[in-house]
Amino acid sequence: MEQGCIFCQIVRGEAPASIVYEDDTVIAFLDAVPITPGHVLVIPRHHAASLAALDPDDGRHVFTVAQRMTAVLRRSGIHCDAVNLLLNDGVEAGQRVFHIHMHVIPRWANDNARMRRDPDELPAARETLEAIAAQIRAAVET
Length: 142
Ligand code: 5GP
Ligand code: ZN
Known about the structure:
The protein has 142 residues and is of the alpha+beta class. The protein has helices spanning 6-11, 56-75, 126-140; strands at 19-22, 26-30, 40-44, 82-86, 102-107. The chain has one domain (6-110, 122-140): 2-Layer Sandwich (HIT family, subunit A). It has a five-stranded antiparallel beta sheet with strand order 1-2-3-5-4. The structure holds guanosine-5'-monophosphate and zinc ion. Residues 6, 17, 29-33, 88, 94-97 line the site of guanosine-5'-monophosphate (5GP).
């Protein structure tokens, strides 16, 4: 656990997050500034700032859960005809939160998704995120 890391705070339950899946190794929750509705982040519970610092077993499980989430999103009822998996490793690659994470981004034709967001883009409303998270959690259980 790293002091001041927002994702470690989510792991500890000290910061709010709309969690869609968790187990002993990873947590998956909705991105606060989603590229499209249902944009999920899968993170290891153990803090690792970069791929170089990531335990390979944790990395395998992050990928396994991200892969599972692609199927969950497709059957959840959320608009999701296709998916981008994205992992930014390093500032120049676009990493902004230095607790490594896999983005799982629902896509569909002409969705106008912009993979680069404005730095001043506002977070989605918590109620909106919670409603989407409930829909995804229901699909996790099926
Ligand atoms: P990166 O650019 O590091 O790959 O992605 C960081 C992601 O974390 C961004 O998509 C951003 O919207 C998301 N994010 C940043 N802070 C928070 C937060 O406090 N809660 C949640 N749920 N997402 C966050
Ligand atoms: Zn952390």
